[in-house]
Amino acid sequence: MSIGAPRDVAAPAGNRSRTRSPLTRRDAGRYARPRMLLFCQYANPDMYPTTVRLARLCADRGERVHIVALADSPAVIHDYGPDVSVERVAPVTGRAAGARTFTRFIGRSVVAARARRPRLVIGFDARGLLAAATAAKVAGVRFVYHLYDVREGRAVGIERAVARVERICIDAAAAMVVPSRAKAEHLARTGLQRPMIVVANSPPLEARRRTTRLRDLLAAKGVKAKTVVYHHGSTAAGKGILEAIDSMPSWPEDSVLALIGIVRPARFFEEITRRAEARGVSRRVVYLGVVPLPELFDLTCSADLGLYLPTTQDAIHTTSGEAAVKLNDYFACGVPAIVSDFPSLRQLMRETGAGVAVDPNDSTALGAEIGRLLRDDIARARLSDAAYAAHVTTYNLARQVAPLLDALPELAALRRAVAQSS
Fold first, then answer.
1. Cα 388 from Cα 393, distance rounded (Å)
2. CATH number assigned to the domain covering 13-201+399-421
3. CA atoms of 109 and 107, how far apart (whole Å)
4. DSSP state for residue 261 in the 8-state scheme
5. What is the pLDDT along the chain (422 residues), one digit of tens a residue?
6. Per-residue burial over 244-263, b = 16 or more CB atoms within 10 Å of its CB, e = otherwise
7. Where are the domains of the chain?
8. Which of 124, 120, 172, 125 is nearest to 142 (CA)?
9. Which of 3, 187, 203, 368 could lock 175 by a disulfide, CB 3.0 to 4.6 Å apart?
10. Which of 47, 42, 49, 39 is CA-nearest to residue 76?
11. Whole-model pTM?
């Protein structure tokens, strides 16, 4: 597909000497070297499976990938595999720490661009985009904006400045990647007129399998479970976790809620404990910590139901759809999903038949639906088959990333037009 690459802009008549042909002899030498991509992400990429998977897929296709990332949490993945390197930028402390950390991050991105001479730079989310645009300008190459989450509401302070520069950078980007159709439609409604490639946050194609890993871990903690309801990812308020606990008295007594992921903030764990005690289900709510991505699939493949229950109407949630990493993981593992009854999620469940949509703030309805499915093995099996079929036919990494990978040669072939930035 055509990405709508920026056109070369001719310089004013008195300034022709500043404009070069897009592909000069010097450029030919530049692109004869081993292919290199630079990723800029102002977060720990270990916590973003899409970044990890895209880096590996690009490496498997002969690219070298260098990731400049913010070390805002401890490293979980210590080896990304051959031809993928990660440079972690430690945050600074003290006065104006946020601004100084971001300045350091941009500086390291620029140094990486000069040293590694990438043929294309990809920025993830707003601050990664700003770093990518700066690094790409220094390297004389183009950049792509890979958006995870849409921004909404009136930004204030530094966020207002970031949002303003983000919009300028979007206009200069060679292409924009968004993770769901609903997010693309939302951005279009805000007046953003850019070519967008929709790439769902899908895992590689997985062979169908069933494991006992969750039950083994639970048994080691002295917890026996006939059925396991599961949530992985950020364990925080607004994720439907407390609401799921409220609904547990309607579940079978031999069912367990298993939680995996970082608890944010740490005191939220105390709220989970209090809520479980209040509902009389303390022994049936089990937190299993944080696990590396390769191990996560084995755990997910042993769940009976998977939860994705954002409770707020923020655009990040109402437009999530196929962008939700955990939903894509549930598809790959054949795990039926219980999702919030938001339009994009309701449509996805209707299209795939992989789960059911429920009002996340109605604990009675939520408990009735989860309880019904936990007691009905045939219904769960039907949803499981549909979930895995959605993974095989549509929501797998190769199928989703193909449009972006196919566009890489076009995106990287031409140097950034000098006149465009002059």
1. 9
2. 3.40.50.2000
3. 5
4. S
5. 333 333 332 333 333 333 333 333 343 343 344 589 999 999 999 888 889 989 999 999 899 999 999 999 889 889 999 999 999 999 999 999 999 999 999 999 999 999 999 999 999 989 999 999 999 999 999 999 999 776 655 555 666 777 788 888 988 999 899 999 998 888 888 888 777 899 999 999 999 999 999 999 999 999 999 999 999 988 999 999 999 999 999 999 999 999 999 898 989 999 999 999 999 999 999 999 988 777 899 999 999 999 999 998 887 788 889 999 999 999 999 999 999 999 999 999 999 999 999 999 999 999 999 999 999 999 999 999 999 999 999 999 999 999 998 888 888 875 544 334 43
6. bbbbbebbeeebbbbbbbbb
7. 13-201+399-421, 213-395
8. 120
9. 3
10. 47
11. 0.81
- The residue type at 121: V
Question: Cα separation of 221 and 27, whole Å?
Answer: 60
131 in Cβ contact with 68 (< 8 Å): yes
Q: Which H/E stretch holds residue 10?
A: none
Task: Give the number of other CB atoms < 10 A from CB of residue 28.
Answer: 9
- Pull the structure tokens for residue 98: 């946020």
Please classify residue 243 by burial: count the beta carbons closer than 10 Å to its beta carbon, then call 0-12 exposed, 13-18 middle and 19+ buried. buried
Structural tokens at position 348: 């996805």
Q: Which residues contact 180 (CB under 8 A, 6 or more apart)?
A: 198, 200, 319, 320, 321, 322, 323, 344
Tokens of 283: 């022994």
First to last CA, the chain: 29
Widest pairwise Cα distance in the chain? 81
Q: What angle do CA 308, 237, 270 make, to 5 degrees?
A: 120
Please list, residue by residue across 302-313, b when 16 or more beta carbons sit within 10 angstroms of its beta carbon and e when fewer do: bbbbbbbbbbbe
Domains 13-201+399-421 and 213-395 share a fold: yes
